[in-house]
User: Fold this.
Amino acid sequence: MFFFLLVFFAGLAAGRFINVLLVPGRGGKRGSFSFPIVEIISAGIFLNCFYFFGFSPLFFKFIFIFSLLLLISCIDLKTGLIPNRITLFLFLWIFFWQLFYPYLSPESAALGFLAGGGLFYLIALLSRGGMGGGDVKLMAVLGLAAGWPYMLLVFLLSFVMGAVAGLGLLVFGKKTRKDPLAFAPYLSLALWFATFWGLKIWQWYISFL
Assistant:
């Protein structure tokens, strides 16, 4: 119990830091865009990673990945943009771990990276602006993290969740069909599910075939 409490408060602190990055000069103040939702989500990230990995190297790898994705998602929701510098930092972090503490085979990681970026690039071309360049780069990086074939699960889950959320926003009048949809949150959630429950989701899906 002590370690879970320690991890919980560490996650809250990380969420407070993300708030500072989101709202420079007044991050974490009540009334800012993200208080206290970001801190609660951050604590959940830390607790879930600790539950699955304990205090292993993978715990530190994935809390950083999902903390960066939380930051990216909040920025995308606020501005409609995915900063290249943060995506590059995320790529370097995942690439470093793949080199020195590989979680996937080199072939799986490389194919996930190329297929993820390639699929989203094709969608961006066909949609003529419906999918932004930031989404393409982020999907490539998440493909590197998930590897093949779990990149396909990230791809499918993100579109299913995005479609459901977009439909809900249309129904409740929060968006029109011409309004862009911030996609980073759904990519991030898709990687979350693929990382922790990917095998069970695949097995569940295959059971219907």
